[in-house]
Specification:
Number of strands: 10
Order of helices and strands: HHEEEHHHHHHHHHHEHEHEEHHEEEH
Structural class: alpha/beta
Oligomer: single chain
Shape: elongated
Helix content: 40-55%
Length: about 475
């Protein structure tokens, strides 16, 4: 009878998936919560197997065929989908190029699983996968989805190459990631095949463009990723060095995103400025006076208002390495554009821009917008030597002692590398802005504020 055959297939496939889940729990104890998060739902209309953050949708026949082909495949497919959730691969921008994003996610996941080197997760394609990953690693610094996506968006591989790589690295059906159930009458329908929409968003941090998929928020999975990152350190000896891909992806997904604009405004100082203070103006008495005495209001608006303005500031550029060239100019321009906004920029100001590697290479004092525009237009990078932060701090201290600054609010030190900080805390706020294409977490003294920005963020590419 058809119904009894269908029930038997679903029961057997469900047992295979439960066995696979138990295998993962035993082999990956630091992932126990992530592994137990998903419910199994048999759906014959789907092609293969898929995940949406809450459920694993599977074609029972697909699961049974995979188990029959190689007993380790269902466990590998399940871990592949769990890692999609942990790394939040389906909370993405609507403008993403779906073909390239799918490919980048699958390569990142398969590389992570291969790094774990667990026999219970073996796959016939591993050897060929590793050869491809070895070639990619010479071009992509970290095998995370966003970096692979940026690489593919730049190199624009052919459709034939995309199909070849997809066949080599894919495991699950991603159609559900882009499915919008609220637009359909039947909300349980899942497309059998991907419906791709081409797009051109190549900016960094695509994972930060969170859209809700089937009412699911990514915050719970992000918290699981944080916990996994901590637990992984406890189990690192057991797994040796075979967790590089997992570590990279966990750092990427748990990395805090910084708003450079908001940060810079915190360096503002209070300054009295000619501007109507609407917060302290009583319109009732003002209009009553006009009605009673004609043109004689009972109260005049206050002319002065305390607003946050930047008057004295220091920008130090580390010219020792890759922070040279257009990246430096982009950072200066971005900083200037934030500073000159109406509420945070004084008409007259005292800003010093210092170029320094292991010693001071150039200092420029800027006092108005015209001088800033001229500096940006004619700026040249000096130095390209070693990295030492101390000369810049000493130079600023000397300026303060000479009376150059009356109320220096802060210094921003823009660098791409590690250097030596002064032992003594200065009498002004210090922020060290690291430009980093990867996910390193450099140390700074306790008295300094640290920001880590990607080059795309500095260049102003919207993410």
């Amino acid at each position: 009878m058809p119904d009894s055959i269908t029930d038997r297939k679903e029961k057997l496939a469900g047992e295979v998936l439960n066995l696979s889940r138990n295998t993962l729990v035993i082999k990956l104890r630091f992932m126990d919560k992530a592994i137990s998060m998903l419910d199994f739902v048999p759906v014959e209309i789907i092609s293969g197997i898929a995940v949406d953050g809450q459920h694993v949708y599977y074609d029972p026949l697909f699961v049974l065929k995979a188990f029959s082909k190689k007993r380790t495949l269902p466990a590998r497919y399940l871990l592949h989908m769990i890692l999609h959730c942990v790394f939040q691969h389906f909370w993405i921008s609507a403008s993403v190029n779906q073909r390239l994003w799918d490919l980048a996610c699958d390569i990142s996941i398969e590389n992570t699983i291969n790094d774990l080197n667990i026999q219970a997760l073996e796959h016939p394609r591993i050897e060929e996968q590793m050869k491809t990953i070895e070639r990619l690693s010479s071009k992509v610094k970290y095998m995370t989805a966003d970096m692979l996506y940026r690489y593919f968006s730049t190199t624009e591989p052919s459709a034939k190459e995309i199909n070849r790589l997809s066949a080599l690295f894919s495991a699950d059906n991603h159609s559900i990631w882009y499915h919008k159930p609220d637009e359909d009458q039947n909300k349980d329908v899942i497309p059998k095949e991907p419906i791709y929409e081409e797009a051109g968003d190549t900016g960094e941090a695509l994972l930060s463009k969170m859209v809700i998929l089937n009412g699911i928020s990514g915050e719970e999975w992000k918290e699981i990723a944080r916990q996994m990152k901590m637990d992984l350190e406890s189990f690192s000896r057991e797994h040796g060095e075979g967790n590089g891909g997992l570590t990279q992806n966990l750092i990427a997904v748990t990395r805090e995103k910084y708003n450079y604009t908001e940060f810079l405004k915190k360096f503002a100082v209070l300054s009295e400025r000619m501007k109507i203070n609407d917060d302290e103006f009583d319109y009732v008495f003002y209009t009553y006076g006009l009605q009673l005495y004609g043109r004689m209001p009972l109260i005049e608006p206050l002319e002065y208002k305390d607003v946050k303005q930047v008057k004295e500031f220091v920008i130090v550029i580390d010219t020792s390495g890759s922070t040279s060239g257009d990246l430096v100019q982009s950072f200066i321009t971005k900083t200037y554009n934030i500073l000159k906004t109406e509420e945070s920029f004084s008409t007259r100001f005292n800003i010093h821009v210092i170029q320094c590697d292991s010693e001071i290479q150039e200092t420029v004092k800027i006092t108005n917008q015209f001088e800033f525009d001229e500096y940006i237009r004619n700026m040249k990078i000096r130095g390209l030597g070693g990295t030492d932060f101390r000369p810049a701090f000493k130079y600023v201290d000397d300026l303060i002692n000479c009376g150059e600054f009356s109320n220096l609010k802060g210094m921003i030190y823009f660098t791409d590398g590690l250097g030596t900080f002064p032992n003594k805390q200065p009498n002004y706020d210090v922020a060290v802005v690291y430009v980093e294409e990867g996910y390193n977490n450099p140390d700074v003294p306790v008295w300094a504020i640290k920001l880590v920005l990607h080059p795309d963020e500095i260049r102003g590419i919207k993410s």
